[in-house]
Design goal:
alpha/beta; Rossmann fold; 6-stranded parallel beta sheet; 9 helices; 16% strand; binds adenosine-5'-triphosphate; binds magnesium ion
């Protein structure tokens, strides 16, 4: 636990279809910079905002996350969203973590520069910004300066921008590469690569 004994937890939500080094590098960088005790990866179940393609079965996405974080003692995963019936809203997830860890815990929701703006336009974002702080990590191709333009001072005061090594990896690109027979080794942990191969994921057009 950090010096002042206050528990500090990061929550990293995403579709993780599949998880890749962009997610892991971001989570680790934020963990160290913010002195977090733990980062919990929370793969989403049925996204409230319909995706452009059919998400891979939650069981596969969750297992790939489990395999990818296994060697980091500060990383864990949660099935909270995938076990929920119907759409899982971030506000409900964060309320549950808030109840679990108590009011004294510092809760951070970790997102990339692309996701934060999208997220703060979600329903109930007024209550959401009261529940936790947000960490907005840089991501190649997305401008964090947009935040200043698009969000009011109350929102901005709850967001900590953070610079992470620029990793131009996306799950979309990994899925496309698999379909095209291109290599994905070194874009995601080798356990993920083997899992994708073993279960023949991402073979069908989206
Ligand atoms: P997709 O291409 O399917 O949208 P993705 O690579 O964006 O996948 P997500 O599961 O959508 O991955 O992202 C989960 C979270 O991780 C989001 O907050 C996203 O902004 C962040 N993230 C993903 N990839 C990176 C990256 N390369 N650098 C920084 N943040 C990232
Ligand atoms: Mg994404």
């Amino acid at each position: 636990m950090s010096e002042n004994q206050q528990l500090r937890i990061g929550i990293m939500g995403g579709t993780f279809d599949p998880i890749h080094f962009g997610h892991l590098i971001t989570a680790e960088e934020v963990r160290v910079q913010f002195e977090l005790d733990q980062v919990i990866f929370v793969p989403c179940g049925v996204p409230p905002h319909k995706k452009k393609y059919d998400l891979t079965d939650a069981r596969h996405r969750h297992l790939m996350v489990e395999l990818a974080v296994a060697d980091n003692p500060h990383f864990t995963t949660s099935r909270m969203e995938i076990d929920r019936d119907g759409p899982a809203y971030t506000i409900d997830t964060m309320r549950t973590f808030r109840e679990r860890f108590g009011d004294a815990c510092q809760l951070y929701f970790i997102t990339g520069a692309d996701a934060i703006l999208e997220m703060l336009t979600w329903r109930d974002n007024e209550s959401l910004i009261e529940l936790c702080r947000f960490v907005a990590a840089t991501r190649p191709g997305y401008e964090l300066s947009e935040l200043d333009r698009r969000l009011g001072p109350r929102h901005r005061a709850r967001i900590d921008p953070v610079s992470v090594p620029g990793i131009e990896i996306s799950s979309t690109d990994i899925r496309r590469r698999v379909r095209q027979g291109k290599p994905i080794q070194y874009l995601t942990p080798s356990a993920t690569v083997s899992y994708i191969r073993k279960h023949a994921l991402y073979q069908q057009p989206e």
